[in-house]
Design a protein that fits this description.
Elements (H helix, E strand, L loop, with lengths): L8 E6 L19 H13 L4 E4 L7 E2 L2 E2 L10 H9 L6 E7 L5 H14 L4 E6 L4 H4 L10 H19 L7 E4 L4 E3 L6 E5 L4 E5 L11 E4 L4 H10 L2 E4 L4 H12 L13 E6 L1 E3 L3 H15 L2 H12 L29 H4 L4 H15 L3 H8 L5 E3 L1 H13 L5 E4 L9 H13 L12 H5 L16
Parallel strand pairs: 1-2, 1-16, 2-5, 5-6, 6-11, 11-12, 12-13, 13-16, 14-15
Antiparallel strand pairs: 3-4, 7-8, 9-10
Helix pairs in contact: 2-3, 3-5, 5-6, 9-12, 13-14
Keywords: Flavoprotein, FMN, Monooxygenase, Oxidoreductase
GO molecular function, one term: oxidoreductase activity, acting on paired donors, with incorporation or reduction of molecular oxygen
InterPro entries: Diverse_substr_monoxygenases, Luciferase-like_dom, Luciferase-like_sf, NTA_MOA
């Protein structure tokens, strides 16, 4: 008997806190004006996507102590955008990244519970930690936490937030006007939490939201991050967009669920995926090359090379050869706390490899960064892209994809108009929303209010 077709989950990421975005393209729009976010969200909802996703930028980007203008920065507050989008959409899920390193559980739980009410059950929280040293300087504690402590705090942060969400059962409000009784239980929302990172007590003032709790996303790729997702997340983002790597990640993370009493369908794996469409595969490949050169300017190439060399390379020509000096292995990195630094565990070995590849291919610094950096995940005609996406999901390399267009706000339009209908014809993507909440879209059960924090590791 053949295996039943998996249904594909699709979401849309409004980029802007990385150099995926080609903000200099004539077709690009504002990353601050609400009209851009509204256009993007309406396109995603028209295509029947599960949700829209916003990353978070808590500070302008810097390297070597200087702000640089390689990415789109200065995005408005996540909650303000998502709340406004709730008013111009009806079914689309609204997912926001909020940091657990610098915020407090009561504040974040209250904001997400409020968003879930205002959107009629469409809120989701992408729980992240931060090790950006320069971001930490914006906050009272300053600096950044070591990785182990970051995840320890994040686990307790999420457990505490769940206790707050679950402090209301959902039946406390009677609003009996004749009897003059509003609450059945005067202790509704009462909580006490005493732990390593948080010691709080009081009454949570937002009643149980339509989804019980907002959907929880997680984005960590480290072993700690994968374990954190297996313990308490509803979905995990993945950076693996090739079939083999995707299958390995899928198998690893799904294999961790049993130890927390969870089944495979209780955690979705959703890689981020860029795309370039053309009338033909050849046209799409040519356009993809042009897009990559737009994404990696000369200044961008130098900054990326500095992640490995840990030196100021601003005097080097991005269209010239790689530096003949070796990376600086000093303790203080030029981009302290940046995730890219962790990608290169052995800078000397990386530098040797890159020099060899550049010499063999006659690559400049910019050529090298383009060739070794991330590429568009799906490139081709709409038919090719639809077939590739479907094959990845059916082969258990993912449960779907979070699409990241290189142009905003209109970069999602072509995908919605050409690829989505082909996936619908294949019978692997919805033609209409069947439910009203984000949990409905994702196939997730409503959480039980009688078991607060039940899905979080202690």
């Amino acid at each position: 008997m053949s295996k039943p077709l998996k249904q594909i989950h699709l979401a849309a990421h409004f980029p802007g806190v990385n150099n995926t975005t080609v903000w200099s393209d004539p077709e690009a729009g504002s990353h601050i004006e609400f009209s851009s976010f509204a256009h993007f969200a309406r396109t995603a909802e028209r295509a029947k996507f599960d949700f829209l996703f916003l990353a978070e930028g808590l500070r302008l980007r810097e390297q070597g102590g200087k702000i640089y203008d390689l990415d789109v920065v200065g995005r408005p507050d996540t909650f303000a955008i998502l709340t406004a989008l709730a008013a111009v959409t009806d079914r689309l899920g609204l997912t926001g990244t909020i940091n657990s390193t610098f915020n407090e559980p009561y504040e974040v739980a209250r904001q997400f519970a409020s968003l879930d009410h205002l959107s009629d059950g469409r809120a989701a929280w992408n729980v992240v930690t931060s090790w950006d040293a320069f971001t930490g300087e914006n906050f009272r504690r300053g600096g950044f936490l070591p990785q182990g402590e970051r995840y320890s705090r994040a686990k307790e942060f999420l457990a505490t937030a769940n206790e707050l969400f679950d402090s209301w059962r959902g039946d406390e409000i009677v609003a009996d006007q004749q009897a003059g009784t509003f609450l059945r239980d005067a202790r509704a929302g009462a909580f006490v939490h005493k732990g390593q990172h948080f010691e709080i007590e009081g009454q949570f003032n937002v009643p149980r939201s339509p989804q019980g709790r907002p959907v929880i996303f997680q984005a960590g790729d480290s072993d700690d991050g994968r374990e954190f997702a297996a313990a308490g997340a509803d979905a995990i983002f993945s950076r693996y967009s090739t079939l083999k790597e995707g299958q390995a990640f899928y198998t690893d993370v799904k294999g961790r669920l049993a130890r927390y009493g969870r089944t495979h369908d209780q955690l979705l794996i959703l890689p981020a995926a860029t795309f370039v469409l053309g009338d033909t595969d050849a046209e799409a490949r040519e356009l993809a090359r042009e897009v990559r050169r737009q994404q990696v300017s000369g200044a961008t190439a130098i900054k990326h090379l500095e992640f490995v060399w840990n030196r100021d390379l601003s005097a080097y020509d991005p269209d010239g050869p790689l530096p003949d000096i070796d990376p600086d292995l000093g303790e203080h990195t030029i981009a302290r706390g940046r995730a890219q630094v962790r990608m290169y565990r052995d800078p000397l070995a990386t530098a040797r490899e890159w020099r060899e590849r550049a010499a063999a291919n006659n690559w400049s610094i910019r050529d090298l960064v383009i060739e070794t950096g991330s590429r568009q995940s799906f490139v081709g005609s709409p038919a090719t892209v639809a077939e590739t996406i479907d094959s990845f999901v059916q082969a258990d390399a993912s449960d779907g994809f979070i699409l990241v267009p290189h142009i905003t706000p209109g970069g999602l339009d072509a995908f919605a108009d050409t690829v989505v209908p082909l996936l619908q014809e294949r019978g692997v993507f919805r033609t209409e929303y069947e439910g009203t909440t984000l949990r409905d879209h994702l196939g997730l059960a409503h959480p039980d209010a009688d078991a607060p924090g039940e899905r979080v590791a202690s």
